[in-house]
């Protein structure tokens, strides 16, 4: 327990002393001293005892990790601990300090009501301490989760930007290699290639900052790129496009086709007698790029940027997988066609801000509930004392205690799962299940 906790207990002792001394005792130094002694004893014994129990449970059974177990142990420890602590304080008060009762009388029915009343007061105070501990733990956990999610989103965004930044030099390097070979083979074709390359590179610059593009845009770009390749390879390469029209308004990762077409050319030889045939078609929400396998010998190890780039970018955007199929006759890559734009990297920061706002709202609800609980634990004992002192035969304190208690229970149900928050959780569970079914290959 921290020093601040003991200072709080001192203030509670002083406040209790002044309250009972000013309103219920004769104004003498002896009464003030006795009241201060008893208030300090009750405050420190009950406060330190409950504090030690709470600290022990926090270490062994944290709220964030074992909520149900902790709740059960808190209830048991509150009841048993306060039963023992209250009997000890009352025994010290009536038998040892004031000496108004013997041990036999103290444990008889005569002091049963007094002990029962003090136990209930102690239980209310202890419930407040455990509730405060729960609220502090919840705030720490919520803040930690929000920070972790923001760090994940920031890291993913940086990774995605890094992957996209690979495309510019990669495309430019390979295009310049093609142009270099054309200059020697066919200078006239090299000029056409340069003009086509400028158009294609414009598309690269336009799409590099986008995470997804329509299949239609990607197909149109791929056809232009294929014309550029035909400029160099002529009849050694053939391209077949057979993409369903209904897939045109769906989405793929930008420049994925260009990287895969480039991959086909890079790893296969193509001649007029043995042309390389590349097919681009759609199949069951997948965009497929297939070529007849005519593997060439690799003079040097490939950097592996193209295919790895596509796989990593899809991994950051969706749980759907990129599939690679290889046989003796063909090589095929299948990339997912996304029906809707997912909650991608660019919107994750907004999503995390939304999560943070929800967390703040949740903490506000909990603070409201525990404020209600604290008020109940403070006001009801005061009303009980006033009632027992002014009119012990007319126990009217039951009415506010029961009425307010029912309202407090209703508030607890709303905050902890039987109100709107319960509905929200159920709606989200249904939405998550539906999303799982829609996504298919997870």
UniProtKB/TrEMBL annotation:
Pfam families: 2TM, His_kinase. The keyword Transferase applies. InterPro entries: 2TM_dom, Bact_2-comp_sensor_kinase, MFS_trans_sf, Sig_transdc_His_kin_internal. GO terms for molecular function: phosphorelay sensor kinase activity. Keywords: Kinase, Membrane, Transferase, Transmembrane, Transmembrane helix. Residues 357-432 form the 2TM domain. Residues 158-236 form the Signal transduction histidine kinase internal region domain. It comes from the Bacteria. GO terms for cellular component: membrane. The keyword Cell inner membrane does not apply. Coiled coil: none annotated. The chain crosses the membrane at residues 5-24, 36-53, 73-96, 116-135, 369-389, 395-416. PANTHER family: SENSOR HISTIDINE KINASE YPDA. This is Sensor histidine kinase YesM. It comes from Chryseobacterium shigense.
């Amino acid at each position: 327990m921290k020093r601040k906790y003991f200072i709080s207990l001192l203030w509670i002792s002083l406040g209790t002393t002044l309250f009972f001394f000013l309103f219920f005792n004769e104004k003498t130094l002896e009464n003030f001293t006795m009241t201060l002694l008893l208030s300090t004893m009750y405050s420190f014994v009950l406060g330190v005892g409950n504090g030690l129990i709470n600290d022990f449970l926090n270490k062994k059974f944290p709220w964030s990790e074992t909520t149900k177990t902790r709740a059960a142990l808190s209830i048991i420890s509150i009841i048993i601990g306060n039963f023992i602590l209250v009997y000890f304080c009352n025994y010290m008060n009536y038998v040892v300090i004031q000496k108004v009762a013997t041990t036999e009388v103290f444990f008889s029915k005569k002091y049963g009501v007094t002990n029962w009343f003090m136990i209930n007061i102690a239980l209310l105070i202890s419930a407040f301490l455990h509730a405060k501990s729960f609220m502090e733990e919840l705030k720490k956990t919520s803040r930690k989760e929000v920070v972790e999610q923001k760090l994940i989103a920031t890291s993913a965004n940086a990774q995605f930007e890094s992957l996209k930044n690979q495309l510019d030099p990669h495309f430019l390097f390979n295009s310049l290699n093609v142009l270099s070979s054309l200059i020697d083979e066919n200078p006239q074709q090299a000029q056409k290639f340069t003009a086509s390359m400028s158009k294609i590179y414009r598309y690269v610059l336009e799409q590099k900052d986008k995470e997804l593009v329509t299949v239609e845009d990607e197909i149109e770009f791929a056809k232009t790129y294929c014309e550029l390749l035909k400029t160099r390879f002529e009849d050694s390469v053939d391209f077949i496009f057979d993409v369903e029209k209904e897939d045109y308004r769906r989405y793929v990762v930008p420049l994925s086709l260009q990287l895969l077409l480039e991959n086909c050319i890079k790893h296969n030889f193509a001649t007029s007698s043995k042309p390389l045939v590349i097919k681009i078609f759609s199949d069951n929400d997948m965009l497929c790029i297939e070529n007849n396998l005519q593997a060439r010998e690799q003079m040097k190890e490939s950097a592996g940027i193209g295919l790895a780039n596509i796989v990593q970018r899809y991994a950051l955007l969706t749980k759907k997988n990129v599939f690679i199929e290889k046989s003796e006759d063909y090589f095929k890559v299948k990339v997912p066609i996304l029906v809707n734009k997912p909650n991608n990297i660019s919107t994750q920061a907004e999503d995390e801000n939304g999560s943070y706002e929800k967390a703040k709202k949740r903490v506000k609800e909990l603070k409201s509930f525990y404020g209600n609980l604290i008020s109940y634990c403070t006001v009801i004992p005061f009303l009980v004392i006033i009632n027992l002192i002014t009119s012990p035969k007319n126990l009217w304190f039951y009415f506010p205690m029961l009425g307010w208690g029912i309202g407090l229970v209703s508030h607890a149900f709303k905050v902890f799962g039987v109100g709107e928050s319960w509905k929200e959780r159920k709606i989200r569970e249904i939405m998550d299940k539906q999303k799982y079914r829609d996504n298919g290959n997870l």
